[in-house]
């Protein structure tokens, strides 16, 4: 069974085999999670990202982790919130689903996700959290090859929300 849980912390400190980057479509770095990951991984990460020719919103691409603890970084551009009628929910679900697919294809057994789109991209936190948890739980019910999936929350309020939403899906 896949262990799915939330922790408070910084995505760059995670001990998982892969960490997910809340990237932008250029894959050339940005603020928030993206900036923290590039700073911690070192310039080799940007060099590899330059070879990828960007990534569409809701899709995902994988690189090495360089100076990170994580062996891989999975880069996924979340949707920018534009009121909710521009396919944002499906695009956000795609970020989680496509990141997990890439993880499986690369034999990754543990992965950490940030709260994609809830920073500068402005996605309402509760809606985004419900999509994140539902999409990950649904995936893990079908494909059990990832053993550990961690939601990394930057603050206590986000952690409480994830724990609340997770409690509706997962016993104990
Ligand atoms: P986006 O552009 O997809 O909105 P951001 O990086 O701006 O992405 O923010 C996504 C979420 O990650 C926000 O909730 C933000 O508080 C949180 N966050 C920012 N930096 C980190 C970090 N180093 N580790 C984990 N979470 C972070």
Question: What is the H/E order?
Answer: EEHHEEHEHEH
Number of domains: 1
The hetero molecules present are:
adenosine-5'-diphosphate
Architecture in CATH? 3-Layer(aba) Sandwich
Supply the helix-strand structural class.
alpha/beta
Q: CATH first level: which class? A: Alpha Beta
Q: Could you tell me the mean pLDDT?
A: 97
Helix content: 25-40%
Number of helices: 5
Strand order of the largest sheet: 1-6-5-2-4-3
Rg of Cα set? 15 Å
What name does CATH use for the topology? Leucine Aminopeptidase, subunit E, domain 1
- The total count of strands amounts to 6
CATH superfamily: Leucine Aminopeptidase, subunit E, domain 1
The largest sheet, given as strand count, sense and whether it forms a barrel, is: 6 strands, mixed
N- and C-termini, Cα separation? 13 Å
Strand content: 15-25%
Query: Uncertain segments of ≥5 residues (pLDDT<50)?
Result: none
Shape: globular
């Amino acid at each position: 069974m896949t262990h799915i849980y939330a922790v408070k912390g910084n995505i760059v400190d995670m001990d998982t085999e892969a960490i997910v980057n809340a990237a932008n479509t250029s894959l050339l770095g940005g603020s928030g999670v993206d900036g923290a990951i590039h700073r911690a991984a070192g310039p080799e990460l940007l060099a590899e990202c330059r070879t990828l020719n960007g990534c569409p919103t809701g899709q995902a691409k994988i690189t090495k982790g360089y100076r990170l603890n994580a062996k891989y970084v999975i880069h996924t551009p979340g949707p920018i919130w534009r009121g909710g009628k521009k396919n944002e929910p499906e695009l956000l679900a795609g970020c989680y689903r496509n990141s997990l697919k890439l993880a499986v294809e690369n034999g990754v057994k543990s992965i950490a996700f940030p709260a994609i789109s809830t920073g500068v991209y402005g996605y309402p936190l509760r809606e985004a959290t419900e999509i994140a948890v539902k999409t990950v739980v649904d995936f893990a019910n079908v494909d059990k090859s990832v053993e550990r999936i961690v939601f990394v929350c930057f603050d206590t309020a986000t952690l409480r929300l994830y724990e609340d939403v997770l409690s509706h899906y997962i016993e104990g």
